[in-house]
Design brief:
Elements: H1 2-7, H2 15-23, H3 26-29, H4 50-57, H5 61-71, H6 95-102, H7 124-137, H8 155-166, E1 172-177, H9 182-190, E2 194-199, H10 216-228, E3 233-239, H11 251-263, E4 270-274, H12 285-290, E5 304-307
Parallel strand pairs: 1-2, 1-3, 3-4, 4-5
């Protein structure tokens, strides 16, 4: 349960255990990666560092399920009783289109720069193409600039890089929970940055109009609680569309969250907008386009970082 509380993954233990954990001071609940777990509570490997051993216990049910899936994949003809994976966001429905495109002759391109180290931010031709792509599909009012685009191998790497450069070890980021557990690895496990939670209620409470609604009041309370206990919060992570809840924040809601962050800028609060699955929504194009912050004026653009996952 302690691991679940830190990882923001839920599960394990009873409601009483969770209430007891929430009642503890933040200093006890949100500790650094070396102190959150007693090494005697799990089997250590002599071949790993303390951090490596902690990383090892983060392999939870999702990875166990993924391993089982690969060992017994469903196939309509060869293995009709196999496992169907609903737990991983992949472009399987586009495979026929992608395979047709990737096997055309113009894709058979090999030049020396592709086999050499590129700019550390990614090949410029790729960054230019990403900027053009998002400018078009997100209907940006002004063209996005390639020099503002950075390409890494997955949003997990982006979370790790941003946690490293935006926060010092032991500082924290603010995030609404529940959230995609993989963020914990990038931010907490690799970046040694704590997670401060704005808890979303499964039932309508207070000023909320729907279950699991994120409000500025919940963000403010979580931030104030953290500061009261000496935890320095450097950034706010917003997931839109929300993973795993599927919520799509309206423009007015997003503006409220961003204005909240701007008000807190005297404490150096930055925003990481993870729009990982922005072009995967079953929604009118106008709504999908508005999910991307390039379509409206950001209150504080120099402090706002936006992610997009090309694998989605």
């Amino acid at each position: 349960q302690a691991l679940s509380e830190i990882a923001g993954m839920g599960g394990g233990g009873g409601s009483g255990d969770l209430q007891e954990l929430r009642a503890r001071p933040l200093a006890e609940r949100r500790v650094d990666m070396h102190g959150f777990c007693n090494p005697r509570d799990f089997q250590r490997s002599p071949y790993l560092s303390a951090r490596g051993n902690i990383a090892n216990i983060f392999r939870g049910s999702s990875e166990e399920g993924y391993k089982a899936y690969h060992a017994d994949k469903y196939d309509e003809d060869k293995n009709p009783n196999g496992i169907i994976n609903f737990g991983t966001s992949e472009n399987k429905l586009c495979f026929d289109l992608m395979s047709k495109r990737l096997t055309q002759t113009d894709m058979n391109l090999m030049e020396p720069p592709l086999l050499q180290y590129p700019d550390w931010k990614g090949h410029m031709f790729l960054r230019e193409e990403v900027a053009r792509f998002l400018t078009y599909y997100c209907k940006a009012p002004a063209p996005l600039k390639a020099e503002n685009v950075i390409v890494l191998n997955g949003c997990g790497s982006l979370f790790s890089a941003l946690a490293t450069v935006l926060c010092d070890p032991g500082e924290a980021v603010l995030i609404a929970t529940p959230f995609y557990g993989g963020i914990t690895q990038g931010v907490f496990l690799y970046g040694n940055v704590k997670l401060v939670y704005a808890y979303l209620d499964s039932k309508v409470t207070g000023t909320s109009t729907r279950p699991f609604q994120l409000t500025v009041e919940k963000l403010e309370k979580a931030l104030q609680d953290a500061r009261a206990e000496g935890v320095t919060v450097r950034a706010l992570i917003l997931l839109n569309p929300q993973n795993p809840l599927g919520d799509i924040y309206s423009l007015s809601e997003l503006r409220d969250y961003l204005e909240f962050a701007k008000r807190e800028c005297k404490f150096d609060l930055l925003v990481v907008l993870a729009n990982t699955i922005v072009l995967c929504c079953f929604a009118p194009m106008t709504l999908t386009a508005h999910l991307h912050p390039s379509t409206y004026r950001l209150p504080d653009p120099q402090r706002t970082h936006v992610m997009w996952g090309i694998s989605k």
